[in-house]
Amino acid sequence: MTPVATHPILQSQPLGPQWPTLDPFLFCAHHDDAYPAGNAERGPAVPLEGREMGSDFSRKDGWSMYHGDVVPGFPGHPHRGFETVTLVRKGLIDHADSLGAAARFGGGDVQWVTAGRGIQHSEMFPLLNTEQSNPLELFQIWLNLPAKNKMVAPHFTMLWNERIPRLVQQDDAGRTTTVTVVAGGLPGADAPLPPPPESWAAQANSDVAIWTLKLEPGARWTLPAARGASTQRMLYFFAGAQLRIGDAEQRSHAALRMVAGQDWLLENTGPDTVECLLLQGRPIGEPVAQYGPFVMNTQQEIMQAMQDYRRTQFGGWPWDSSDPVHGDEARRFARYPGAAQDEVPEPAAG
């Protein structure tokens, strides 16, 4: 019998630009950029002097250009051997890739890309509002692939905000907790949307969960135990003043490695809304070799990935520029490879 833990937190680390992760996750970044009004080219309508253009992570004036020169964002770049899961909380992202897929998404939408044997994609942040500011906030999460799936065909999908399951629960005092379920089941929420077919999250015993939590001031909610005995769980407390987890009072934003096999009562003990991101899963438990955008199991496989990319460009780049954007209309859509028509968000059933 597993002994009952009396304290929920195994380790606490402060949050920086990139957040610490546990196997099967590789990387988690929280981008929160207070972009100004846009110009006719959909870039910032302010001078860009003083920034290291092409690699601006300065957060000068509260925002960065990243690798963008005109429009902020990440022009075409390759990936192999893992998946990217992008949760957009504010603003819009324009996606384009070597499969020919394109999308404009935001406001709660999630994009899930299985890089597999290789894909190029761009992620640009068009500033469509020319009269007011253009805030952007997102999480980008890298989820590893097991060795047997690292060379699967690449796959692109959208999880539209309107279709993502949510649990909205009030405690005895009528205070509300909302849990958004990107991956992994949660009692009381609708059935989870299926992850890409070759994802580690699609394996029956992976116990992968990607949730965001929002607790009103004073709200109490019980975080249920993970299903798997070996599941690892990280709770990122990133907004709000105070959060009590079991007997632990958390007064600073942190990545909290938690005891996963037990229920824990969460309580917002501060005056502001508390928000958290939860990442959990059974570890893949394989060696990780990484070189920038390539994640494999051995250094030899990394060398092969670099050679393959130089030789094939992972299918080439079917776009006129390395940083395509999709017009001035704030219309969310996805154009899948080979599709004749765009997919657009539809309301949830019921």
From TrEMBL:
This is Pirin. Keywords: Iron, Metal-binding. Gene3D superfamilies: Jelly Rolls. It comes from Simplicispira suum. SUPFAM superfamilies: RmlC-like cupins. Pfam families: Pirin, Pirin_C. Binds 1 Fe cation per subunit. Residues 67-143 form the Pirin N-terminal domain. Belongs to the pirin family. InterPro entries: Pirin, Pirin_C_dom, Pirin_N_dom, RmlC-like_jellyroll, RmlC_Cupin_sf. Fe cation binds at H77, H79, H121, E123. Residues 211-315 form the Pirin C-terminal domain. Transmembrane segments: none annotated. The keyword Iron applies. GO terms for molecular function: metal ion binding. Its cofactor is Fe cation. It comes from the Bacteria.
